[in-house]
Amino acid sequence: HASGLQLERAPGPTRRSGGMMTTLELIEQRLRERLTPVHLEIQDDSAKHAGHPGATSSGGHYRLVIVSDEFEGRTLIERHRLVNEAVSDLFGARIHALSMRTLTPGQWSG
Predict the structure, then answer these.
(1) pTM (whole model) above 0.85
(2) DSSP 11
(3) CA-to-CA distance for 99 and 46, rounded, in angstroms?
(4) Residue 78: which residues within 8 A CB-CB, separation 6 or more?
(5) Residue 48, pLDDT above cutoff 50
(6) Main-chain dihedrals φ then ψ at residue 51, nearest 5 degrees
(7) Cα(40)–Cα(49) distance, rounded to whole angstroms?
(8) Alpha helix ranges (H) inside 36-104
């Protein structure tokens, strides 16, 4: 499998001017620092949730696929907890909802 990063950006509230990092970039930074993924995909699904209560005032909706050796021997709940802990400071103001697929390299290539 090819390792790499795939960011899919939709226009919306995650774009910031003046050099500030977007929410996608912040999520990527936190996950790379904490979990050193061999593959990472992050998608901003905020536009799909326009009009949804909280969609504008309390952060966006994001979906990710992350492949990391850190997930070896861990349950699904433990894997999700690791991801949530890595981006915990972004919940509320920047992240309203985060869905994820957490895989080991063996699961990803299989």
Answers:
(1) no
(2) S
(3) 12
(4) none
(5) yes
(6) 90, -15
(7) 23
(8) 76-86
